[in-house]
UniProtKB/TrEMBL annotation:
This is Phosphonate ABC transporter ATP-binding protein. Keywords: ATP-binding, Cell membrane, Membrane, Nucleotide-binding, Translocase, Transport. It comes from Caulobacter mirabilis. Coiled coil: none annotated. One of its GO terms (cellular component) is membrane. The keyword Disulfide bond does not apply. GO terms for molecular function: ABC-type phosphonate transporter activity; ATP binding; ATP hydrolysis activity.
Length: 264
């Protein structure tokens, strides 16, 4: 692991039945980086993010995943460090991030549950500092006007911003965002990417974001990691992703993965 790496992924493989979703992936991510994880459908992006958050185990073997210097997965098992690292990792999925029947405020305040007793949270007895933190986070991502509204009545973009606010209340140091903009319209998608980018630049949060839209990866992330059939096939500056490399990753149909137009 390099000294400033907050995440170290070594020789990680994951097999589902006969299918190898990840095949010997190694990767270091330094504190404060914003990394786009791209690759064709089924290339292993979600599997890698879910493994980093300890949501699934990797194959038994030499591979491991470490966060903040502690191994959270090794020899195909989660270690006793996984809970601790999870409290410092915010996970944002494509959809269904929030509990629909609860208010946006409550969903965001739930981010503090690692630190306050669960029952108090369930009863809505939030300490004053949690209330203040939740409102500040909602304000930060621009949805404080909707604090009292049930989450399932919010737009997709508002819900994604709520999920980011929850990660802020959680005091996450790493945000893993799994296709956070895939079900949004381009305006809402840009807003969500801008918020992630701003949190990275201003607060120094480490962000790893999987994206189908390669133009978003190029625009918002300095570093891009590409997976293809479970293997890492590119890891470098987004400026180095030229047509030839994109064709290598996605095949001749690569222009389909640009939302707002491929570069000339
Ligand atoms: N729980 C599972 N059981 C069986 N196979 C799985 C499971 N999860 C993932 N896979 C398989 O592993 C491979 C990688 O899937 P993964 O979801 O990580 O890809 P992805 O790159 O995120 O794809 P997409 O861009 O379409 O979301 C796929 O072939 C998928 O079918």
């Amino acid at each position: 692991m390099t000294s400033d790496a907050v995440l170290s992924i070594r020789s990680v493989s994951k097999t589902f039945g006969a299918r190898r979703a990840l095949d010997g992936v190694s990767l270091d991510v330094a504190r404060g980086e914003m990394v786009a994880l791209i690759g064709p459908s089924g290339s292993g992006k979600s599997t890698l993010l879910r493994s980093i958050d300890g949501l699934q185990t990797i194959d038994n073997g030499e591979g491991f995943i470490a966060a903040f210097g502690d191994k959270l997965q090794a020899k195909g098992r989660l270690t006793d460090k996984v809970r601790k690292s999870r409290t410092r990792i915010g996970f944002i999925a494509q959809q269904f991030n929030l509990v629909g029947r609860l208010s946006l405020f409550t969903n965001v305040a739930l981010g503090s549950l690692g630190r306050i007793p669960f029952v108090r949270g369930l009863l809505g007895q939030w300490p004053k500092e949690t209330k203040l933190a939740a409102m500040a986070a909602l304000h930060r991502v621009g949805v404080s006007d909707y604090a009292g509204q049930r989450a399932n009545t919010l737009s997709g973009g508002q819900q994604q911003r709520g999920a980011i606010a929850r990660a802020l209340v959680q005091k996450a140091k790493i945000i893993l965002a799994d296709e956070p903009v895939a079900s949004l319209d381009p305006v809402s998608a840009r807003k969500v990417m801008e918020i992630l980018s701003e949190l990275n630049a201003t607060d120094g949060l480490t962000v790893i974001v999987t994206l189908h839209q390669v133009d978003y990866a190029l625009r918002y992330c300095k570093r891009v990691v590409a997976l293809k059939a479970g293997k890492k096939v590119y890891d470098g500056p987004s400026s180095g992703l030229d047509r030839a490399k994109l064709i290598d990753i996605y095949g001749p149909e690569f222009e389909d993965v640009f939302w707002e137009g491929a570069p000339a």
